[in-house]
Amino acid sequence: MSDATLGGNSTALPPPPPPITEFPILERQAYLSRIYISATSVLLLLCTLTFLTRMYQRVRPVWKVGWDDYFICLGYVSRRLRCFASGHSG
Q: Which pTM value belongs to this model?
């Protein structure tokens, strides 16, 4: 094409800016995320120990697992699977 068909303007457009792949994180946000991860990890550990202790007490001496224990197992396992599938730890 000639310059006449382009309206006499033959300057090229500048390339678009690169996409932003990183977001700035403030120090306060980093601090709060560390607090959140710490608190979540401690509570997850307590929850897991409580769950395992309850299941051991129900199964080990004499098998006396009730329907409530099956629902607790189902809830615990489904929560763990959802967290692992989504990439979260809590």
A: 0.59
